[in-house]
Amino acid sequence: MSTEGPAPLARLVAELSRLPGIGQRTAQRLAFHLLRAPDEEAFALGDAIREVKEKVGLCEECFNLAEGPLCRICADHNRDRATICVVEQPADVIPFERTHEYRGLYHVLGGALSPIDGVDAEDLKIAELLSRVGRGGIGEVVLATNPTTTGEATALYIAERLRGPQLAVTRLASGLPVGADLEHADEVTLGKALAGRRSLD
Amino acid sequence: MSTEGPAPLARLVAELSRLPGIGQRTAQRLAFHLLRAPDEEAFALGDAIREVKEKVGLCEECFNLAEGPLCRICADHNRDRATICVVEQPADVIPFERTHEYRGLYHVLGGALSPIDGVDAEDLKIAELLSRVGRGGIGEVVLATNPTTTGEATALYIAERLRGPQLAVTRLASGLPVGADLEHADEVTLGKALAGRRSLD
Question: Is the four-CA dihedral A99, A103, A104, A107 of positive or negative sign?
């Protein structure tokens, strides 16, 4: 006999523990919570999972998440259509939107170049980016891939492909995060912060 | 416009963040994972939630989780039917079963006495326990409520109600957890460990 209780509970624990960062114990705690929760609450979660899988696709233009053919940003006529911010994943759009500082469009690559993991240029939406830029009207492409080895390589690769006289290709600044403690800064970040120091005029 | 992406995604994040211990950021990470995961995997989680809510109820005898009228432990004729281990929650049965040391039955109270939270004796399955014991054939009741204020109060209350010449009423030992470091033991646990010291004969 299983020591883990009824089969449907064991199955729910197994499914929950497949989620990233959810271990066996957390999965068990969540499963017991769902079992005790009102039906409406538990079913609302199940329905939300189904709905997100059925209704959310990728924007035809920028490959951000979208409920229809275009995402809400590409469909918004108040955005600055001359600027494209290139990110790795749809999740990376959210922190940019939260700044309320960026008014341009996005382009979601779907990952970063990583030959070791078998991710080459044709696995990412790079050709689609080049084609968007090639249609004209773009003044700046901000390369906002992650400040990691693969993100840097991807930014350099794209910068090389975009090179042209009419287009500014920029990269996000690397440096100390706001509120950080210098004592605990890693040496790579501190090196970047030093190299990118700005005059206080 | 929401900064959090399409409405179904925002709804999934909201539902996930209602789970205990899941904050906004974790909920967002899980939602993006489910969005990227194969349909089968995401739907399997939704189905497992629905199945657990629809199929799992409480055992008529011991109030542990059960798929039918009786839980698998009460239905198992190889268990020692003269011993009842009293626990607060169905989740508490699992660690006992994992020990493979306990062969008796259980009784799940559904909580612990806590007048401050409005939990009185009639909110717990205490009358049902007294009635089980009253039907005879029980030699020992192990009170395995949590070693907390409310768990102790519940154990003492039940012990008082069960008092009788034919019945052993026992409580789990309190003391240092196996593998613990004495230096970091809290004084209450250490006090209990000292009070409960055993002769090494």
Answer: positive
pTM of this structure: 0.74
Q: What is the pLDDT of residue B1?
A: 40
Is the pLDDT at A1 greater than 60, yes or no? no
Average model confidence (pLDDT) across chain A: 90
Residue-range definition of the domain harbouring residue A115: 79-171
Query: Which residues from B are below 8 Å from A94, CB to CB?
Result: 3-5, 28
Q: Let me know if residue A152 belongs to a domain.
A: yes
For residue B97, what is the domain's CATH number?
3.40.1360.10
Asked whether the beta carbons of A24 and A13 are under 8 A apart, the reply is yes
Label residues A158-180 b or e (16+ Cβ within 10 Å = b): beeebeeeeeebebeeebeeeee
**Closest by Cα among A188, A31, A90, A72 to B52:** A31
Contact list, B48 vs chain A (CB under 8 Å): 8, 11-12, 14-16
With CA atoms as reference, the chain B residue closest to A34 would be B49
Q: Lowest-confidence range among A23-27, A33-37, A192-196, B44-48?
A: A192-196
Residue A2 pLDDT exceeds 60: no
| Smallest CA–CA distance from A46 into chain B, residue | B46
Which range (A93-107, A162-176, A183-197, B115-129) has the least confidence? A183-197
User: Most distant CA pair in chain A: distance in Å?
Assistant: 74
Instruction: Tell me the ipTM for this assembly.
Output: 0.75
Residue with token string 């963040």: B17
In a domain, B184, yes or no: no
Who's near A58: CB < 8 A, 6+ residues apart?
A64, A65, A66, A90, A108
